[in-house]
Amino acid sequence: MTPAVSVVIPTYNRAAILGATVESVLAQTQPAVEIVVVDDGSTDATPAVARRWGERVTYLRQANQGVEAARELGLARSHGRYVNFLDDDDVMLPTKLARQVALLERDPGLGVVHCRYHYVDAGGRHLETVGRQPEGDVLEPLVWGCFPWSGGPLVRRACLEASTRDRHRDWHGDWGMWLRTALAGWRWACVQEPLGWYRMAPGSMTDGKVANCERLVLHILGEVFARPSLPAAIRAERDAVHAAWYFWLACRYYVNGFAADGARCLGRTLALAPALRGDPAPLLELIRQDALTPRVRVHDPLRLVASVFEALPPEARFLSAHRARLEGRVLVGLALRSWGGGDDIVARRQLADAVAVDPSGLLRPEQFRADLVAWADRLSDERPADYVARVLADLPPEAGALASVRGRALADLALRATRNGTRRERVAGWATALRHRPTLVLRAPRRLAGGVARRVRDRIASPPQRLELLRHLVRRDFRLRYHGSLLGALWVLLQPLAQLAILVFLFERVVPLGIPAYPAFVFSGLLPWAWFSTSLAAAGGLFIGNRDLVRRPGFAPGVLVVVNVLSNLLVYAASLPLLVGLLLVFGRPPGPWLLALPLVLAVEGVLVVGLALTVATANVFYRDVQQIVAVALALLFYLTPVFYRPEQAKGAASLVFALNPMAGIVAAHRALWFGAPPPWPALGAAAAAAVLAAALGWALYRRLAADVVDRL
Known about the structure:
alpha/beta
């Protein structure tokens, strides 16, 4: 059986911790997971460890060529529809793959599904939990930096294959790989819950290899911003993006002992971002955040601060007077992290050191409150409010004055719960916030109303892109339908007229049915039937005949069904003047009941879309479906009262009409044009059948959409 997911684990001399990584994959609740361990020339006991699980793990070995070559080998030898690259020191939580596969199966337009995660240290101790992560169109956040955990994304194989065909094969590392998917147009989704452990241990790409990293970053940025297709909004941020990356590189140089290069990159940051040169606060905050972020593996944040201040470039000398302030802020962050990890004694000492280094910090309780609330949200196994209460109850004597922030900190946390929690948590959050900060709560409705108004205004001002795409595809389909023919769009009128002429000749001349105004009678039934039958007849080839479009990243194949139905509705609309003319010729002008026509068309539209979605999806797997539909339509035409009165049927025939939703739709359509009310019971039954058909078609499409892309 072909596995749904392949997990590729490159490894090099990590025998001591590789087992925990593999065991975390074996423990996944997702069935049919293939594990491929690629040994990049290890000299320790890695081969023995990797073979411990026998056939449950595919073990490959290559000469030492680096993680990129190991990933490529693992990808080439794996078979899953979805691929997850996992570092040999990271751990998946049991439901990770199942949660991500569910999203990919549901939406074939998704290329990547990632997740939130926990940072842990080398010993597996929790450091912090990341907050909400980007999703959707992630190109802009990826240009600014590599936000996903390397083992977090589960990638559709088609997405990887399309991305690796990109000419930028020299974009090594996770960042280059994820950028390729975003530049190719693939959308991302995110399970906004922590589903893995990202281990922070020495040996990252930037440890001692910063110069190589700088060349790679600048090379990638140069090629990204040289792309003509890059959105203008991102292109306008070119200097700011480069400034952010130069700052990141400066910190990496400083912490690795390359002070001159650090000063050079910090100088470039200030040259590209003049706004940072006037006020020290933003730059100090950037350094603090970098020092306290586990991702960059700064194991001694105070060493980074010392390195920066000992080798400031001339452009940054204005920071010199603020060293104590920054060291105090970093020590506060370390203390809050230690409290989160349960090291209360260490935390009290670090906060006392912060007060000793920067006594003026006691005069900035609002800053401490903001740091406290931010750290409370990064914990994994303790309620934020409990953490805040525990920290403030455990303050060292030197910092006892900071306990005054308790009420405001709890109110801040409560207001966050009103936005993100369950209904009970929201109610409790408002009560807590009202108790601690009543003025802030009283201003909340006005802010909420303003936010809603802005969203409504933006929605009206900017029509959805999908609607614009749908309009374009319908227009294109209608134009191409008769492109290249001599008569062109005249076929819109000639085809129904030819069919009308045949039916009138047969049942008015050869076998007369005695129906008054028979041409108008037939044409009023022929138009809704033509819309129905033409849409279903074309549905079988929609996905197969548009392979390139279906495979395009971010494109939802179901749109083709809607386009087909709407395009045929235009043909229906173009034929209405003929029907009006016939009614006038026979002295049957339409009456006020014609105002109900949109309702009848809506019922038929839902029915046609549901059935066409089923046919288009099923025909990808079983090509007989299209042939069966052709035969069924030929038979159904005679079981639908297009050219005869349904009232003449009795017994079993009336039962056939009752089970045929198109019988009720055709009868309702004809009644409206002839000035009579529609047969409401028959139309209601047709509406129920339409809703059922749409639900079943949508369920089948959502279940098989990912396989449709793979099968094509």
